[in-house]
Amino acid sequence: MNADPGDTSRSGHVVVIGGGIAGLAAAHRLVTAGRRVTVLEATTRLGGKLLAGEIAGVPVDLGAESMLARRPEATDLARAVGLGDRLQPPATAGAAVWTRDALRPMPRGHVMGVPGDAAALTGLLSPEGLARIAHERDLPPADPAALGDDIAVGRYVADRLGREVVDRLVEPLLGGVYAGDAYAISMGAAVPKLFEAARAHRTLTGAVRSLQQAGGQQTGPAFMGIAGGIGTLPGAVADAVTAGGGEILTDTPVHALTRAAGGGWNVRTGERVLRAGAVIVATPAWSASELLAAESPAAAAELAAVEYASMALVTLAFRRGEAEGALPAGSGFLVPPVDGRTIKASTFSTRKWKWTDEGAGDLVVLRTSVGRYGEEEHLHRDDADLVSASLKDLADATGLSARPVATEVTRWIGGLPQYPVGHLARVARVRDAVAKLPGLRVCGAAYDGVGIPATIASARRAADEIIATPTLAHGTLSDERE
């Protein structure tokens, strides 16, 4: 093979498979540590579910639109790549829940929809639902054994506080994050602090109050956006990677990943083979499963069992004078599945984000989301049908009757990994199996959380473990055609 000997001043060539925010964050961490890095992305675009776009000339996010600010990983990365002065909190934080045929203010005093007392959900739940929450004090003390190693959020909350609190608040909140089913989502994986607090308190409401007291010193906004869109973050990270000497190749699918004779890895991309001392697989679980099948059948089998939900975002632009007066105060609303609507949420983008409003002129922009795990038949409808269904639900919820001047439907097929009961144990088994192979790690939304900070944390963990490996073979890039 006519191989490039590589930069021997570096401590080893690392190939990162996947150019979503996880792969880019891992590459940035590695380049910062002085590693020679090549990122391989199968599609023609970087960023994964982070996508900046526009509608009627107004800049918008067509994918994820905000990131948790009380975890530092995402905001730290944004600052590190020069976007610190563009970080913006939401212009308004108030939201609503559209349930029982009315928009009801989003209550305070809860943890992912689980209240500290019944009064927190007054107005949202029926009198019977509120009474059921108050009834928890008459139940036997919460038994840690009932939680076991893991339990579904919806199941445990319904057992302690009644189904109504799950159906009207926990479900839409979790659905907004995972597009999943609260009665199947792992409590240990999705709300780990509440899971641990529930083990230590007589009541679930008491566990919530303890978390609220512990978090009472937190200041600053809970969420953050980026002027120009969260979708601008991947490009900024990619620029920082290449500025640091890294290489990024798009439209370069990986066809095989095998251990090299004498150590290191062979990464086959069509007719080329990249030799690497280490590899980070930062792809969705199904893709990672295929790549790991030859070298780690155990990890591949576990990853193949990870299920995903698909969803669509419907972005709509209206004339401001025709729409602004119809929209209620706040940044948008959630919709419980139990109410049988098509949309699961709506965000009033020009209300929520100052940078969107400043670029909108005489337009108002909002978006709806459609599709949950197991309820994805709506995604088979054409774009016009999804727009019509969104407009109907918006009219029923708010009275908005204006016709949009522009629409954009963005489909995220297999966009959100599901975290059912046992997810954490599955992830541990995957990592144990992968760790047996020197110089190989995995990261992404399928492991430690689907939010942007959690995904970046997963990437940092993988990169740091590679950096800490004392000896890695120097990698070379081969252009031999086979």
Top keywords for this entry?
alpha+beta; seven-stranded mixed sheet; 18 helices; disordered C terminus; single chain
Q: Which structural class fits the helix and strand makeup?
A: alpha+beta
In the sheet with the most strands, the strands line up as 8-7-18-19-20-17-21
Radius of gyration: 23 Å
Number of helical segments with 4 or more residues: 18
Major sheet size, sense and barrel closure: 7 strands, mixed
From the spread of the alpha carbons, the general shape counts as globular
Gap from first CA to last CA: 10 Å
The average pLDDT is 92
Percent of residues in beta strands: 15-25%
Description:
By secondary structure, this protein is of the alpha+beta class. It has 18 helices and 23 strands. The strands form 6 sheets. A 7-stranded mixed β-sheet has the order 8-7-18-19-20-17-21. Strands 12-2-1-16-22 form a 5-stranded parallel β-sheet. Helix 5 runs antiparallel to helix 6. Helices cover about 35% and strands about 20% of the residues. It starts with 12 loop residues before the first strand and ends with a strand. The N terminus and C terminus are likely disordered. It is globular and about 70 Å long. Strand 7 and strand 8 form a beta hairpin.
Give the helix/strand layout:
Layout: E1 13-17, H1 21-32, E2 36-40, E3 52-55, E4 58-61, E5 67-68, H2 72-80, E6 87-88, E7 96-99, E8 102-105, E9 110-111, E10 114-115, H3 127-134, H4 144-147, H5 153-161, H6 163-178, H7 187-190, H8 192-199, H9 204-214, E11 223-226, H10 233-243, E12 247-249, E13 256-259, E14 265-269, E15 272-276, E16 278-281, H11 285-292, H12 297-304, E17 308-319, H13 320-323, E18 332-334, E19 343-347, H14 349-352, H15 354-358, E20 363-370, H16 383-398, E21 406-417, H17 423-435, E22 440-442, H18 452-467, E23 477-478
Parallel strand pairs: 1-2, 1-16, 2-12, 7-18, 16-22
Antiparallel strand pairs: 3-4, 5-11, 6-11, 7-8, 9-10, 13-14, 14-15, 15-23, 17-20, 17-21, 18-19, 19-20
Helix pairs in contact: 1-10, 1-18, 2-18, 5-6, 8-9, 11-12, 12-17
